[in-house]
Design brief:
The structure holds two protein chains of two kinds. Chain A is of the alpha/beta class. In chain A, about 45% of the residues lie in helices and about 20% in strands. Chain B is of the alpha/beta class. In chain B, the strands form six sheets. Chain B has a seven-stranded mixed sheet, with helices on both faces. Chain B has a five-stranded mixed sheet with strand order 9-11-10-13-14, sandwiched between helices. The longest helix of chain B is centred in the middle third of the chain and has 24 residues, at about 210-235. The chains are: A alpha/beta, B alpha/beta.
């Protein structure tokens, strides 16, 4: 087994029920296991599937298996399919060295839609995230997914971005292989494009700094 | 073919805890499986159901979604007493429903391995309470295994079948949400041979529990307990790791947090951990020996101090002076699940170990973060039914409700949930509310929940001349737990070889005189039907029939025809948003708007709008 640059590598994947983050964590976990690492994934869902917040935690080590929960303030990276959820999770699991990758497209909670609650302005959210992490990838994943023809691909785009960030010891082929085990071949072209697009977005984000 | 059906062993796969239970049962040669679904247990039956459907040639077990947990356990008991290896799964509160047969099945015992999964839910992610079902092992006298993660879960499941056969009684497998919903590498062994047919041998003085028989059976069960304890003393599921004079006793998911903490605190040479996997009967001798070998002990167990209290009793009996702690101020709480930080900090505090914490973030300047509670989906028919009832009774009626998606009717602006304690309680408690008050009572129950435990309550209400209206929200599936079939499901829609039971026929058969079936998205007609039902003196039932849109998308897909607000017509009353709060709608510049990606075209808002400003989006030319 290859040693990890960060051991344990602790990744939180979060978002809103229905965005496909459980699938993302499953694909990532399977690929890391296949690459020879010890992987534990913890999932938090239940009632939250009906539009609530959903979180998965992927824990990777070259040593013995870890528990299914990341200790607070100890995540290596936070991948979020929704910017408000990124900030919520960052408060609990972040620390000054954490890397955050988030989709920039807000999904409004019901109380915001009905006007009882206020959603932070996008600029305010972005600034708050930037101020609290070592590196922010603020990515138009939903927009890119629309361009590929299916908004649901945002989760695979974010996985591609995670690859592009260089934080996980995997290449796109390894994630493709696991996606191939979960999707029929006719859906794989779009998934491959989504991974590649995510890597590009991360690279652009790195290039602008 | 699904990887779970791989005949050979050797390879490891990343499995969800609940999938590991399935693989473990298949490796044990399970022949019969029953359940009632419920988080966090649902993926066990759902996987068994899916595998049978996808690969009927490759699976040999019988599987059913039973009507409720009592029925599931009794059906399983028949198969296990006849001689088949049997698995029965449910969530923790489901065991309450099944407790009656369980207590006496422990007396009769079984003739082939029988495993009962109790999936507990500390912190109540999707439950009405967080009861500690380790009590059920103590109450019934049955052995209990408590694995810490998916790999152990598979191993324990297979072993539980063997243990059950060795002892002749069912074995309880107890998990918690964090174990059911964890994924880790699980090494496969070979699939087991399946004995699919049994021959029942009559033995009424073992199986017919009249008092004279049961008096003897109780003594037999006590002997089984002693035998189980001897096995527990030797079990490799109970082991000690690490060394030092500081002792920990832990089992289940908490063991993982302890081991993470030992590494964090760099205390492997100071902390010795007794891992309790065969958790009932307790391996008392091994535990006493452990107590004697350390200076102080911290018991790390979620919920109730069962092991802690047992250890204190053992220490007293055996004159062991070791300090034992677990629950209390500055220690662990009896409420909620644990987490790694809590366990690490409590261990550090109790043992006086130093820990350099990671610097937390300064969160003072953060904008206020709006909460994100779950809500009814866009196009959910429950929203329309609630709306119709509210138009008739306003905010004055009492609304006993039940367990399902519609419990979310609790949240504003619907706010139509006044009392719920368990499956089926809506119907029975309505009788109490209506007799005790002069208020109108309109209660809500889902179709699956009605079949689960609403029927007996309705019989009671009709027989005792209660006066209330029961609304059965018939969305054709068990929506909340993942769209499992139930007796009322239209079996042709899902292609199952089961028999459809007609809900309306059942209700009429129970003697209800006023029964109306409504289509909730026909708002005006629905309101009229509710009026008539509420005016009726006696028990009236409204069956509100409309498929769950998530289920419909799978079994009867239709093209979506979203609606849009005509902003010239919209005068900004916002009734559509204030009264029903559909997640597809939002307010912009004082007017309502509809997100076309979320709207499924249920047309509820269009019927509410006083300006008739909400219209179907015209197909683009």
């Amino acid at each position: 087994m290859k040693a990890l640059a960060n051991d344990p590598l602790d990744i939180v994947i979060t978002g809103v029920g229905g965005q496909g983050n459980v699938l993302a964590s499953q694909v990532l976990g399977r690929a890391l296991l296949q690459a020879g690492y010890t992987v534990t994934v913890g999932e938090t869902y239940g009632l939250s599937q009906r539009g609530g917040a959903v979180m998965s935690q992927v824990r990777v080590t070259a040593g013995a298996a870890l528990g299914p929960l990341i200790p607070e303030n100890r995540a290596t990276a936070i991948v979020s399919l929704e910017p408000l959820e990124a900030l919520r999770v960052l408060g609990q699991y972040g620390h000054p060295g954490v890397v955050v990758l988030t989709n920039d497209r807000p999904l409004m909670p019901l109380n915001v839609l009905t006007g009882q609650d206020k959603y932070p302005a996008p600029g305010e959210l972005k600034a708050a995230l930037e101020g609290l992490c070592a590196k922010l990838y603020w990515l138009p994943a939903t927009e890119a997914a629309f361009a590929l023809g299916a908004p649901i691909l945002a989760n695979v785009i974010m996985l591609g971005a995670l690859l592009g960030s260089g934080l996980v010891p995997l290449g796109p082929e390894e994630l493709e292989a696991e996606l191939g085990g979960l999707f029929p071949e006719k859906k794989m072209a779009a998934n491959r494009q989504a991974l590649a697009r995510g890597m590009e977005l991360a690279a652009q984000c790195l290039g602008t700094q | 073919m699904d990887r779970l059906l791989t005949p050979g062993g050797g390879k490891s796969h990343l499995l969800l805890g609940n999938e590991a239970i399935v693989r473990g049962a298949l490796e044990a040669g399970v022949a019969f499986a029953t359940c009632y679904p419920g988080t966090p247990s649902s993926e066990v039956p759902d996987t068994l159901y899916r595998l049978r459907k996808e690969s009927p040639e490759a699976v040999q077990y019988y599987f059913e979604y039973s009507t409720n947990e009592k029925v599931a356990l009794e059906c399983a008991a028949g198969a296990a007493v006849a001689g088949l290896r049997t698995l029965c799964t449910m969530k923790h509160v489901g065991v309450n429903v099944a407790a009656d047969p369980l207590m006496t099945l422990a007396y009769t015992g079984v003739n082939a391995g029988m495993v009962l999964l109790t999936a507990d839910d500390p912190s109540l992610f999707s439950s009405q309470n967080e009861q500690d079902n380790r009590f059920y092992a103590r109450l019934s006298g049955l052995p209990m295994l408590e694995p810490s993660g998916p790999a152990e879960l598979k191993q324990c499941t297979t072993y539980a079948f063997d243990l059950s056969e060795q002892l002749g009684v069912p074995v309880m497998l107890r998990t918690t949400t964090r174990v059911n919903h964890a994924r880790e590498a699980v090494a496969f062994d070979k699939l087991g041979k399946v004995k699919t047919q049994a021959q029942f041998k009559k033995s009424p003085f073992q199986y017919v529990t009249v008092p004279a028989v049961s008096r003897q059976l109780h003594l037999k069960l006590l002997k089984v307990y002693d035998q189980a304890q001897t096995i527990s003393e030797q079990s490799s599921l109970n082991f000690i790791t690490g060394k030092g004079k500081l002792g920990i006793v832990a089992g289940g998911v908490a063991y993982n947090y302890v081991m993470d903490a030992v590494a964090d605190l760099d205390a492997a040479k100071r902390v010795k951990v007794f891992k309790l996997g065969f958790s009932w009967p307790l391996p008392e001798k091994a535990l006493v020996k452990f107590l004697k070998s350390v200076d102080k002990v911290l018991v790390v167990e979620e919920l109730e101090p069962l092991v802690e209290n047992a250890l204190k009793a053992l220490a007293q009996e055996n004159k062991v002076k070791t300090q034992i702690a677990g629950k209390g101020p500055k220690l662990f709480s009896r409420a909620y699940e644990f987490n790694p930080r809590l366990v690490r900090d409590t261990m550090a505090g109790y043992f006086g170990l130093k820990y350099k914490a990671t610097k937390p973030l300064k969160l003072d300047d953060l904008p206020a973060l709006p909460n994100r509670p779950p809500n009814l989906c866009p196009g959910c028919p429950h929203r329309a039914t609630f709306y119709a009832v509210k138009q008739v009774v306003g905010d004055t009626a009492i609304h006993p409700t039940d367990i399902g998606c519609y419990t979310l009717g609790l949240l504003p602006p619907i706010s139509m949930a006044d009392f719920v304690i368990c499956m089926g309680s809506s119907v029975s408690s309505s009788g109490g509310f209506s007799r005790a008050t002069k208020q109108k009572v309109v209660s809500f129950i889902g179709d699956s929940t009605f079949f689960h435990s609403g029927i007996t309550g309705l019989v009671n209400a009709v027989h005792n001349n209660h006066d209330f209206t029961l609304v059965i929200l018939d969305n054709g599936t068990t929506a909340m737990t993942g769209h499992q079939p139930h007796p009322g499901v239209e079996t042709d829609k899902i292609g199952d070889p089961t028999t459809h039971i007609d809900l309306e026929g059942v209700v009429r058969g129970l003697g209800v005189q006023h029964v109306t079936v409504i289509k909730p998205f026909k708002v005006r007609a629905a309101i009229e039907a509710v009026k008539a039902a509420v005016d009726y003196k006696g028990v009236s039932v409204i069956i509100s029939k409309e498929l769950c849109p998530l289920f419909a998308r799978r079994v009867a897909p239709k093209s979506r025809k979203p609606f849009a607000v005509n902003l010239d017509k919209c005068k900004g009353h916002l009734d559509c948003i204030k009264k029903v709060a559909c997640p597809a709608m939002f307010v912009e510049d004082g007017k309502a708007k509809i997100n076309p990606l979320q709207c499924i075209g249920c047309a509820l808002c269009a019927q509410i709008c006083p300006e008739n400003a909400i219209l179907p989006v015209k197909a683009e030319a």
